[in-house]
Design a protein that fits this description.
- The protein is built from eight helices and 23 strands.
- By secondary structure, the chain is α+β, with helices and mostly antiparallel strands.
- The chain folds into three domains: 5-141, Adenine-n6-DNA-methyltransferase TaqI, Chain A, domain 2 (Alpha-Beta Complex); 149-172 and 336-383; 194-335, Alpha-Beta Complex (Adenine-n6-DNA-methyltransferase TaqI, Chain A, domain 2), CATH 3.90.220.20.
- Helix 4 packs antiparallel against helix 8 (338-376) and helix 6 (295-307) packs across helix 8.
Length: 383
């Protein structure tokens, strides 16, 4: 039998009670757990539940436990669940559902774009009480059907959360391994470390300057800083610029080259591990290591030095930091022999492989959940 659907307004008496936030006096704020936790807006929202360290002992508006918390100021429509009572400021509202609470939570999550479209304002986007109350909602008339839909999506969320937890565990293991392995105190197999400057281990060169008005030649694919993430290359968006035939060898990226960001997040680096023909822009250092040095080891070493805030010391510039050629080559590094470099890189690469595998699983689960939400939260579904 086809499920009958109901079309109502969010603020209707039989759908939900809306509590708009109101900011209490800042004099009542404290970090000593006196009163109730306070949320001014969605800045303290987590994946599902808020995380805040600010308390308030003079509540004006309180979101009940288990209610839905929704941002009414930019970014409009961001939601969380209230795992306890919260005092809410003017950036939030509390939605006390009178239909199945989890169903309404997922419905609002799915329809965030419609909430954003209602937002108005010249300084910052916001929606008011009337717009929240007047928001159109649809739901199955049968409460049991609402529960079934919510249960399916909750199960999907649990699988996603478990996968995220596994990824976080591997990343924590990797962080610990890097701290243990990538320092001169590491005594694995009685390895001896020596201090050198980075420029003694490699040759490096900045890429071609992007100048659409002056560049000539054919349009060819190139890598820029946006393509270089920590430890991996993002190939989802590859841009093209004009490069002359006479410049091809100079700006070619070869398989195994280490690419290091010169600006922005200086030192961010990854290895080009593909056979595709590609070139690179001057926002990147292309690094090729001499015999006796392993590129993957140095990728992890730079990542570790970044965690220790060592690379930023070599950045030039007051606002936006740049890592010029001289500064890059003068970075001091501690290096073991080649065999040890390769062993260390292999250990860390093994952990990275596990992280990458779990991230693919996570991507698959998130696509499944997205499909379920699109199908189950629309009236013409056959749940």
């Amino acid at each position: 039998m086809k499920t009958e659907w109901v079309h109502k307004k969010l603020g209707d008496d039989d759908v939900a009670k809306i509590i708009m936030g109101q900011s209490p006096s800042s004099a009542s704020y404290n970090d000593e757990n006196i009163g109730l936790p306070f949320l001014q807006g969605c800045a303290d929202f987590g994946e599902v539940f808020p995380k805040t360290s600010v308390y308030c002992n003079e509540p004006l508006k309180v979101a009940p436990q288990n209610s839905i918390l929704m941002s009414v100021r930019a970014p409009v429509g961001t939601i969380n669940k209230a795992d306890q009572k919260y005092i809410i400021g003017r950036g939030l509202c509390s939605i006390v559902s009178l239909i199945n609470n989890d169903y309404l939570y997922y419905y609002l999550l799915q329809n965030k774009n419609r909430l954003e479209q209602k937002a108005q304002g010249s300084t910052f986007l916001a929606i008011n009480s009337a717009e929240v109350n007047d928001f159109d909602v649809s739901y199955p008339e049968s409460l049991s059907t609402q529960r079934r839909i919510a249960a399916i999506l909750t199960s999907a969320d649990k699988v996603i959360a478990a996968t995220q937890k596994t990824i976080a565990k591997y990343k924590q293991i990797k962080q610990g391994m890097m701290e243990d392995l990538l320092n001169e105190q590491c005594t694995m197999n009685n390895v001896q470390w020596r201090k050198v400057k980075l420029g003694e281990c490699c040759e490096s060169e900045l890429g071609k300057t992007l100048d659409e008005g002056r560049n000539t030649g054919l349009y060819r694919p190139y890598l820029c800083a946006l393509n270089v993430l920590w430890g991996k290359i993002d190939r989802s968006t590859i841009k093209r610029m004009r490069i002359e035939d006479s410049e091809l060898e100079r700006y070619l990226v070869k398989k195994g080259d280490l690419l290091v960001c010169e600006g922005g997040e200086i030192g961010r680096c990854a290895i080009w591990d593909y056979d595709d023909v590609i070139y690179y822009q001057n926002a990147l250092h292309r690094v090729r290591f001499y015999d006796g040095y392993d590129a993957r080891f140095f990728m992890y070493l730079l990542c570790h030095y970044n965690d220790l805030k060592l690379i930023e010391q070599y950045g030039k510039g007051l606002t936006i930091k740049h890592l010029n050629q001289t500064a890059f080559r003068n970075i001091p590094v501690c290096v073991p022999d080649l065999a040890a470099q390769r062993r260390i890189a292999a250990i860390l690469s093994g952990i990275d492989a596990k992280i990458a595998a779990e991230e693919k699983v996570l991507e698959k689960y998130e696509k499944v959940k997205k499909g379920l939400m699109e199908r189950l939260l629309e009236e013409d579904n056959d749940e």
